[in-house]
Amino acid sequence: MSDGGRDDEFEPSDGIPDDSGAGESERPEGHSRRDPASGGRPTGRPIRPDAPRRSDGPMRHDAPLRHEAPRGGQRFFGGREGQGGRGFGGREHDRGEGRGRSSDRFDDTDRSFHRSAMAIDPLPLVPDDLSRLPKAIVRTAIRHPSIYRKRIDHVDRHARPGDWVRVETAEGEPLGFGLFNPKSEITIRIVFGPERELTEGAWEQSLDRAVSMRRDLLRLDADTDAYRVVHAEGGGLPGLVVDRFGDVLSAEVFSVGMWRRIDPILRRLESMLGTRRRIARTAPHVLAQEGFDAPPLTGATTDAEGRGGDARVSDVTIREFGTRFRVRFAEAHKTGFFCDQRDNRRMLAGFCRDRTVLDLCCYSGGFSVQAKKLGQAADVIGVDLDEAPLEVAKENANLNQVRVRFVQADVFPFMRDMLRSGRQFDVVVLDPPKLIRSRAELDEGTRKHFDLNRLAMQLVAPGGLLLSCTCAGLLPGDDFYRLLCSAARQAGDPIGEAVDGEFRRRGPRGMRFLTKTGAAADHPVASNCPESEYLHAAWMRLD
Q1: What is the pLDDT of residues 398-440, one digit of tens each?
Q2: SS3 content of the chain, % helix, strand, coil (to 5)
Q3: Which residue intervals of 278-328 are DSSP H helices?
Q4: pLDDT tens digits, residue range 228-277?
Q5: Neighbours of 353 (CB within 10 A)
Q6: Is the dihedral of CA 270, 230, 2, 462 positive or negative?
């Protein structure tokens, strides 16, 4: 991972906090933004993947999203190969069943749909009859958009996965309208607070506000045609991330409620932004967390003359500060490209003129290509373990007519090889994958961050720059910066005798923080969901 953001995901949640309230990164899991399945400490064990804006012209009717068959007979995203979508969801249910029944204490284990596959057929944005909306009673008032199972007292029995529910306290205090899923620990995701009604107009207002922020306030169209449009909790639409890539809208969905409404959401965004094609995919962990999985959906829009669009969404070329990047959706992680590091990529380029640059965990070459193209670096090396993103990185270098050396290798042995050969670089970028996916992985993931940074610091030439990033929402920024200080205390000159030709102990090295940054402004942090601030980037000068 390296060239983009988190995500993801959180991912924003990219976008799904865990039961403790900490956020899920926007980033995908592992090396090159996939979950690491092994190692991390400097023992030679690799980080390996555990599996593979407002309308610019008249538009008319939109073709619905269609299923896209997974390539090669494998899943595109979501779930492990061969794993079914069973869990709680259900056969097609009679939505009138149980309408007159009273609420009882919340317990999903006795519901009939718990024993069969979840129904994920499309639903309208707003139900026809709001008077029959199921009611959910929570034990205490909460302003966070995620309501966990343990906070719920009971839910009307006729509520089904993906349904809207009216959320109240036992005292009758309204908390808003949310999307319900009894399978998920995040059982209700609040979309509209108590001050808003559940209407088509409320949806239009939320989507219009999201687009207006990117186009009118941030004026991103002047610099790029690749940016985050919907940022899950950070944008008031939990369970959904949407990025714009040229004429393509690419969505990653974290909840069954959003998945069942994704077509009308993307069609509305399409009319606002003037895009022509769309793709929607479930998040990699959605089967485990939400209890459903589905192949990607694609669609295209006809223009004012009635000419049909090509619904195939295989790739697109985007621009970022004059640099072009190819996004190949079949090989890409998350939505396809990581927009959260956009401003950091440009900022890094300012340090690179006539200097040597090492980009660790380079993914599709975002930092590497910008260091050479915008920064005019003398020499750039990008390192990543995954072959497919490296092929795209090479394509991106060729697209911009710059020379970058890309190396397929695990970063731990690569860094040790560089140290043994005495090689150092003026600028080093370390943007590893999401190393902490749950609180159970906190200690191990923190050690991996420490070991990565201790080695990377040794590769920085005296007076050089290290940009170190973390997209692990469960590692707070203050803890990350303290970790970097600790790593610097063991990144200096060797102490004592070498063991097996390698020094095991090192003294301290002088390090100074120049500044600290995060995700680009199109990845906002909501005041009622502070864990959506998932990306931390530290800029350090090494003595």
Answers
A1: 999 999 999 999 999 999 999 999 999 999 999 998 888 888 8
A2: 25, 25, 50
A3: 286-290
A4: 999 999 999 999 999 999 999 999 999 999 999 999 999 999 999 999 99
A5: 12
A6: positive
Burial environment of residue 450 by CB neighbours within 10 A (0 to 12, 13 to 18, 19 or more): middle
Q: What is the DSSP string of 62-101?
A: EPPPEE-PPGGGS-SSSS-TT----SS--SPP-TTTTTTP
List, edge to edge, every strand of the sheet that includes 405-408.
405-408, 379-384, 356-360, 425-430, 460-470, 536-542, 511-517
Chain segment 88-108, per-residue pLDDT in tens: 222 222 323 333 333 445 555
User: Which residue reads 């049909």 in tokens?
Assistant: 308
- Show the tokens assigned to 205: 């207002």
Helices 342-349 + 366-373 axis angle, to 10: 40
| β-sheet bridge partners, residue 164 | 179
421-436 burial by CB neighbour count: b if 16+ within 10 A, else e? eeebbbbbbbbbbbbb
Mean pLDDT of the chain: 80
Asked if 12 contacts 23 with a C-beta cutoff of 8 angstroms, the reply is: yes
